[in-house]
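Page 47, continued from p. 46.
Same chain as before, 391 aa.
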Amino acid sequence: MGRIGIYGFETDSIETIKTKVQQAFQDALGLDISLSDSSPQGALINMITDLLHQIDLERQADWHSRDLNKAIGYQLDIIGKEMGLDRRLAVPTTIYVNVEGYIGTSLPAGTQAALVKNPSVLMRTKADATLTQSPQLIEFEILDNSYTEILSVNDFVATTEANLNIDTMTVQSFIRGSDIEQDYFYRLRLIESGGKFDDIRKMEQALKKIAGVQKCRVSDNKNDTVNSAGVPPHYVCIDILGGSSQDIGKALYEWLMVGTPQYLNPVGGESVQVYDEYGFPQTYIFNRPTPYAMNLHIEYSDKYGMELSTNEMEELRDMVENFINIYDINSMVYTSDLDALILNRFQDKIHLVDIHWTDTSGINIENNGLVYAPYHQYLMLNNLDITKVVV
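Result:
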């Protein structure tokens, strides 16, 4: 079976596992039993071997998901959130276009255009614009930065929208954007920032490794007065979702040791008692956070009649749900992050029209592009509604 080694979680080969299972059968039933695959015990040995091997692989995957050197994708994002260092999201290329046309012509935000020399290079206006002079410089953006390699100053641009009184459009200049930060470079930044990963965050990471723990937030109050979360001065507050009380108590004892002030949850919490190496009881208090249920409504429109397939719609739903689940207790979500995540994947097929967050009673909970999970609570998606609209 697998074990923790110097290279992380190490697993036995399936052949080694099978040999160990065969040995166990012989120890229990005698050396003269048949071990051939065609025998009943051979079939049972193969089934047990496959099961143990699968368990090993799942344990290895879970262990590596918490290892900075091995985590990938969303797993790496979770570690980054814990360390207070987010992945750099994609930045669209900004194009400054000279537009000549009828004075008073309106170009709403999202107005589409394309390069004449390569119509697959699509761009859109970044904000509402109205021609007050001709020519007039208007900002566009390209979401697919790979196309910037073929961009040139003075390239002709043609609007793809009907009924616009535009004569000519030419590229005056552009600022190259950047793609979403890849795992390799994100991991390097996280490693380089390791000095900022203080004891509180290390303790938080250790608690998250407890079996069954889904989310954890450790916060301390270094001030001489009660803070806005209700934590008394010089106390630490632990919010932890999942995991057994005894396992949590043992982990806290390893960090706190004897004589360290107890952990306190000021809003009422769960108490656990463990015994130190001398047999004396040590009591620790922590909080069980509650979900902050919310509804998310996403509106989008198709590009040129291109439909999202059933599989792509499921992928979009999974992407949004995984995005929400990344966030920890008392976290804040930037709507722009979700916008960028969706467009980075589906920009060739859809326009995002609106992302709207409400509580379960329908009241808006977004403030200046941010959604907050209150103290001692974590965001939970109650309902996800994705609607196609005609614009």
